[in-house]
Amino acid sequence: MAELHEDPRITAVGLLAETVTGLSARFAAQLAGHKLSAVEFEVLMRLVRSPGHELRMTDLAAQTSLSTSGVTRVVDRMERDGLLRRRACPTDRRSSYAGVTGAGVTRLTETLPGHLALIEQWFTGQLAPAELEEFLDYLRRIRDAVNPCATAGANGNTEADPEAEAVNA
């Protein structure tokens, strides 16, 4: 029984969770200084990095830590704040797209230098360039296994295809 407590798989998941928690705390303070929550920042980043700076709402939910109702609430709030716009899908009345406005791009652009400095200080700066490249490959492999829809809508695709889309993530 004691061997189970020492299993390296438990250690790996624990270290990952501790790392994410630590980074999230450091990022939250910096983002708050720009009047963004971590979720709002994530939504802006996903949209800015998507074709046409927009995604179907369902794809945005799949790519973030939000449910479909959660992404609707966040997009509603960000739309009221002028950071996002929503438009109906021309081919499917049940779907709509969320896209970044000029004000959203400006807010993100103002936020990124400090955010990148924190990433460098607490994350990527801890790894040599070759280690970072290898680590990113590992993270993509794990991400694609646990969240195969994480790249839904990438490059204009409307359906999740982890094998084809992982290359573009």
TrEMBL record:
User: Cross-referenced SMART domains, in alphabetical order?
Assistant: HTH_MARR (SM00347)
| UniProt cross-references to Pfam families, sorted A to Z | MarR_2 (PF12802)
Q: Where is the signal peptide?
A: none
Domain (HTH marR-type) ranges: 6-144
Q: What is the name of the protein in this document?
A: HTH marR-type domain-containing protein
